[in-house]
Amino acid sequence: MGPSAWIDRVQSLSECLEIAQSVCDMIYRQDQEYLDKAFHLSLQLMYEYLVRAVTLIGEKEVLQGFDIPPVRFTGLLGSDRLVSNRMKQVDSWCVPDVHMLQELSSTIELVFASSLSPPGPNRPHTGCTKHKCLAHQVKNGTYVTRHVAPDCACEFVYASQDSLYTLLCGDSPSIPLIAPSNPGRHSDGRLYVSLLQPGRLSSQPPYVAISHVWSDGLWNVDSNAIPLCQFNRIMDLTSRLNENSSIAFWLDTLCFPLAPQDAYDQALIRMRQSYEEASRVLVFDAYLLEYAVSEMSKEEVAMRIACAPWNRRLWGLQEGVLARALAFQFRDSYVDLTGWTKRRGYTTTSSSLMFSTAWSRYASLRALETETPKTMSIVQAKKALTWRSTSEKDDEPLCLGSLLGIDPESAVKTFIKDDPARTRLERMKVIWSSIPEHFSSTCSGTLRNSKIQASDGRRHHS
Fold first, then answer.
1. Do 161 and 229 reside in the same domain of the chain?
2. What is the pLDDT of residues 434-448, one digit of tens each?
3. For residues 176-208, b (16+ Cβ closer than 10 Å) or e, as one string?
4. In angstroms, what is the C-alpha Rg of the chain?
């Protein structure tokens, strides 16, 4: 088929869809139930595939120089309701997850996502609102630190409180790091990890920072300790990430002291640096750990990552933005989407719609990868914070400040005991006062109306 024939066909399809859109939207506005939902959906899918086809046709060398007519079609009102309603009512998807996919994805991607198992199907989603999922909110009094296997009862491995304090608050402060060695037994009968002693912040050795969803069970509300099975798994997976060579790692559960307050504050102040200085950040998400990369297409891998609960956590945003390299751990291997796509020659124009759209969500997270320092504008932050949340409301200003590149020390030390709402308010005042006056007055209203006032699952991190 010659260029003229291709262009005539696109023009004809475009005109047909334009007429169909006018008729369907007119009927939908008058009576939403009159239109057959499957027919409505099929028209929208046809449109999206046509737009994709036009894009690919326009890239063909044989058509270079020809004027490819645009597809004059903006999408059918309510065309995805058949899929979204089924996901919420039949397939146990959480309401805000579906709304997020509707807003950020094409209808084709929504249909593809609906064919996958939803994140956390066994978690209770009763009470979840359009923008806020409660299934990953955890109260300290009910939190249980989990083993790798449900029937495992191995002992816990601890980090020395005295050593953590010395590393964070001593004469030569540094980021606490776990040495890649087996834990040793101390006089109290417990197993303890070995903490590296680099001596100063400027001499940190290479290490991997672990980013995880607190509600998956890798946090500990009572002490800096994790099950031995979890410790061994982290040692194994970080070694694989480092080309099968042992490497130090940072995990908040072991490296972030719960007390005393001055050590806790110092760890919170250095939260950004803990991820920024890491050679790589490895994401642990229970949803992704259920699936093997070798058994999935590239579209499914990208979609699983896009749908993972980690993408809904506020602190996960900071960790993903700051990482020098970001990898997601699956059951059989890890995926660094940047390197993974380059090695396979995938691009947004050479791949399917499902991959292109899912990739764009990851790409927006890594948009600051080449910038130094890695800081967002307030408008970028507003957009990035949408759909993300944290349980500890007084942490929200700290995460915002970190994304904007604001020194968190003053905000961290602004703390009203037993009053997180007041702490959050006072900390937010500190953050806003650090933004230039003209910049704040122009953009503050937009940011305050964003979804920043949501909720997560951990004291400092998710």
1. yes
2. 876 435 444 444 444
3. bbbbbeebeeeeeeebbbbbbebeeeeebeebb
4. 25
